[in-house]
Amino acid sequence: MQTLERKLVLEDGSEYYGHGFGYPADRVCELVFNTSMVGYQEIVSDPSYTDQMVVMTYPLIGNYGITDEDFETRFPTIGALVVREYNDRPSNFRYTKTLSEILEENGIPGLWGVDTRQLTRSIRAHGSRRAILTGADVPREAALARLRATPVPRDAVSRVSCKKRWYARTADHRFHVVAVDCGIKLNIIRSLNRRGCNVTVVPWNTTAEEIALYQPDGVFFSNGPGDPEDVGPVIELIRAIRGRWPIFGICLGHQLISLAFGGRTYKLKFGHRGGNHPVLRLSDGKIEITSQNHSYAVDADSLAGTGLIPTHTNLLDGTVEGVACPEERIFSVQYHPESAPGPQDSGYLFDQFIELMKEDKTHA
Ligand SMILES: NC(=O)CC[C@H](N)C(=O)O
């Protein structure tokens, strides 16, 4: 029997003891849970989880290792990972490294051997809270004092966004998309490339004038970490360019579009994170099973009079899952049509963006 050498202390003083894996560092983060049964590599490398400690409810993690092709960003920035059972001996012909090695390389601590069911129930009951991952021998009061003394970071987008523009091109391209990178997942870029789009990925603080110089057919606003209200420059950018090109936004991008139009966002009790969230498409009553990862949501009442109309609703709690302003060729969704990981019911949204760009080109 190994001794329990690491622990998690939550804001309410509750403690969860376990074993360390990955990078051996202490960390103070917001604690959230994800119910996906597969896809830990994509989750660990999704930049939207920056500064968050993710509890996986699926009880066995690590068993198929890490592959070179399945990263959502090259340098993962998730705060920390908490699992029930960690398997350090993957069985998968595609695997190149173990999960623990990838966490270690990127300075991310992991904790395994804790009762993730109890932890998840506590997050559901009390909401997502902050926690500190530290040594098992650190007295609780000392750990709590460090937790309270650590400020909540508000600059995550600037940390994960690219610093210089970069190109993701495809053979036989028909469209050029400028993607504003607030922490973009690579599968969004792959989804656009597969549909004949050359993508120019630009930093979050790119100006409207700079975007015009790229002569895009459409502009995309990406997913990303943190509170959308902290990303003022991108809200201003959307205000400056709305109506000029077709615009598509995913997750943080959807929240920023809503704020730019005068809507409001608020924090959900414990967010939506998983691969089976049912969403109703209001135009025809079709249900999509979606991949989700967000803490904030757009306030439905705040959309009245903004020009944005709700297009999708979450069937579990009725929250807004999509908005559109058809006259200005703008639409966005709160969930993840690029999946990675998750079901692919919503891939048609990329085709919708292509259609908007096609119409725009024909009328130009
Ligand atoms: N995946 C995302 O883009 C998340 C958006 C935002 N950070 C939220 O948690 O709501």
Total strands: the figure is 19
What is the domain tally? 2
Main sheet makeup: 10 strands, mixed
CATH class of the largest domain: Alpha Beta
Can you list the ligands bound to this structure? glutamine
Please tell me the overall pLDDT: 97
Residues in helices, as a percent range:
10-25%
Helix count, DSSP H or I runs of 4 or more residues = 10
Classify the secondary structure makeup into a structural class.
alpha/beta
Cα end-to-end separation: 70 Å
Low-confidence stretches: none
According to CATH, the fold-level topology of the largest domain is: Rossmann fold
Walk across the major sheet and give the strand order.
Answer: 10-12-11-13-14-19-18-17-15-16
Provide the β-strand percentage band: 25-35%
CATH architecture descriptor of the largest domain: 3-Layer(aba) Sandwich
Radius of gyration, in Å, reads 20 Å
Q: What is the CATH superfamily classification of the largest domain?
A: Class I glutamine amidotransferase (GATase) domain
Order of helices and strands: EEEHEEEEHEHEHHEEHEHEHEHEEEEEH
Shape: globular
Note down, in words, how this protein is organized.
The protein has 364 residues and is α/β, with parallel strands linked by helices. The chain has two domains: 6-149, Glucose Oxidase, domain 1, CATH 3.50.30.20; 156-363, Rossmann fold, CATH 3.40.50. The protein is built from ten helices and 19 strands. Strand 13, helix 8 and strand 14 (247-250) form a beta-alpha-beta unit. The chain is globular and about 70 Å long. It starts with 5 loop residues before the first strand and ends with a helix. Residues 48, 223-226, 251-252, 293-296 line the site of glutamine.
